[in-house]
Amino acid sequence: DGGITQSPKYLFRKEGQNVTLSCEQNLNHDAMYWYRQDPGQGLRLIYYSQIVNDFQKGDIAEGYSVSREKKESFPLTVTSAQKNPTAFYLCASSITGGSPLHFGNGTRLTVT
Amino acid sequence: AQKVTQAQTEISVVEKEDVTLDCVYETRDTTYYLFWYKQPPSGELVFLIRRNSFDEQNEISGRYSWNFQKSTSSFNFTITASQVVDSAVYFCALSEALTSGTYKYIFGTGTRLKVLA
After folding, report:
1. pLDDT per position as a tens digit, B56-97
2. How confident is residue A1, by pLDDT bands cut at 50, 70 and 90?
3. Closest by alpha carbon to B113, among B45, B38, B62?
4. Nearest CA in chain B to A96
5. How far B16 CA sits from the closest chain A CA (Å)?
6. CA–CA distance from A60 to each of A1, A56, A64, A82, B33 (Å)?
7. CB interface of B with A, residues 6-45, below 8 Å
């Protein structure tokens, strides 16, 4: 079955360490997105990519970085510059602009 | 700028009651899409419906119905005869094209629905 796989489901890191969250899709979707979810704040857009080797900053890109070397993969790195990295991270993809987003199961990152 | 407002943070109803979740949006574009998603406790967002800006027909799917009114920039979601399994966080979202040709999706803050047995 096609879908989006995020790994790991839970991730724990010490403050000051960079950490990379994996997102892989086998839906053949062009567009991919990373969102951050905090209690009471809904989903906020971190980065998005329409095609391979191209991506744009979302509303809260500071302290994050991404790459899009393959159509299927859109990893997110949470750097030590991110002031409050503990959150639930969701990866999504869509086949065309305006199509529904398909979401992964999310990664819950805890930084202490 | 685009914005989606879900003013209801949390709603509690007793099973079999009807409940309406409100969504108000802001956009400058004439072409856009509106969505509703359900997020159960497991965390994954489940797509429920998409509406484009040119289709104001209301839609019904089983116990779910949606009311899209461009005049008030609202896209409300009603659950009829609610069930405990409807308990979840519901998100309204807006998608519109950017000048680069990509699409940006903006989400509201969500409404937590609790259906009590």
Report:
1. 888 889 999 999 999 999 999 999 999 999 999 999 999 988
2. low
3. B38
4. B103
5. 27
6. 32, 11, 8, 10, 22
7. 6, 9, 32-33, 35, 37, 42-45
